[in-house]
Design goal:
heterodimer; A: 162 residues; mainly alpha; 79% helix; elongated; B: mainly alpha; 0% strand
Chain lengths: 162, 161
């Protein structure tokens, strides 16, 4: 079985057919994907804004506690993302916008992981003055990758052909 | 009334200008999506605090997220208006769009309720309001309504007649 055959096989699975042909499969998956997106990117944006200094009244110790919420959104998006992929695997796989989106997600995940272990945890114990310039740069980079590229490329999937 | 408004938009120079550039619609979509994530993220923390979570976050301090929510909302409205100016016929008759607009209005009134029935009293020293059922109900309502708005918005292309 070559790659294309496998991708076409994915479309014939129960979930693949549900999302591609049933009346509600696609809109439901897409709506939940948007909800997950708003949670993941929204919480990330708030954490990044706080690391850049706003709003000051939000304690740094609290930022790490937003992570479970972000993870919940991430799981929802991974699950609905897989379902949506099954519905159009053979075209999505070769869609440039889709490929860019997956790359941006992976890059973002690595940076979020780094943000958590190298920035949030130590700073939660240290305090405001420990937020260094490189850390601020990292947060800006995360905003750019998650916020701009993932959403932009995700939106472009609808416009770019396979 | 809707027919008149549609005609008014379709014959306007703004509509013509926006239609002349094919990149405007997808760009407005991207702005709409980016702004809604910031809006939802800040709102999520604000509402969850109102519901009684994240107690370490000072109740009044959480209120600093309101300007963030409002700025994000301004971007959402501007990009949303762009969609309408480009294709009013598509939206005005759409049931998901109509429900969404109704809920946005209700959510706005609900936010005012929070402002005057919860935040103002707390600011004036009524500490017990902070953990009251009133605060929890209004905050929960806010979150539920906005999640529904998000889902309805994403459904607009799929309920077209």
């Amino acid at each position: 079985m070559d790659t294309l055959e496998f991708l076409e096989y994915l479309e014939t699975t129960a979930l693949g057919e549900w999302v591609a042909y049933s009346m509600w499969g696609y809109p439901i998956s897409l709506a939940l994907h948007a909800l997950g997106m708003a949670t993941v990117v929204g919480i990330t944006a708030v954490i990044c804004l706080r690391l850049l200094g706003f709003p000051k009244a939000l304690p740094l110790t609290l930022l790490a506690r937003f992570f479970p919420l972000m993870m919940a959104g991430m799981l929802l998006n991974a699950a609905t993302g897989v379902v949506l992929f099954l519905g159009g695997a053979s075209t999505l796989f070769y869609n440039l916008a889709f490929q860019l989106k997956i790359a941006a997600i992976v890059l973002g995940l690595v940076m979020i992981r780094f943000l958590h272990s190298a920035v949030l945890k130590p700073f939660a114990q240290g305090g405001e003055q420990h937020i260094t310039a490189p850390a601020k740069l990292l947060t800006v980079a995360i905003i750019l990758v998650w916020w701009l590229s993932v959403i932009l490329s995700g939106r472009l999937i609808a416009y770019v052909g396979g | 009334m809707i027919a008149t408004l549609t005609d008014l938009i379709l014959s306007s120079s703004v509509h013509e200008t926006l239609m002349a550039h094919s990149w405007i619609f997808p760009t407005a979509e991207t702005v709409h999506f980016m702004a809604l994530t910031l809006f939802f993220g800040a709102l999520l923390i604000l509402d969850l605090r109102g519901m009684g979570f994240y107690k370490q976050l000072d109740f009044k301090a959480a209120h600093q997220f309101v300007p963030v929510v409002l700025v994000a909302f301004a971007f959402i409205v501007c990009s949303g208006l762009t969609f309408i100016m480009i294709d009013p016929e598509r939206y005005f008759v759409n049931i998901a769009f109509q429900l969404k607009m109704g809920l946005v209005l209700i959510a706005g009134l609900n936010a005012l309720l929070f402002e005057f029935l919860v935040f103002k009293p707390v600011l004036q020293g009524a500490q017990d309001i902070e953990t009251s059922l009133r605060a929890k109900v209004i905050s929960t309502l806010s979150l539920v309504i906005w999640i529904t708005v998000l889902i309805l918005g994403r459904s607009i292309p799929y309920v077209e007649v």
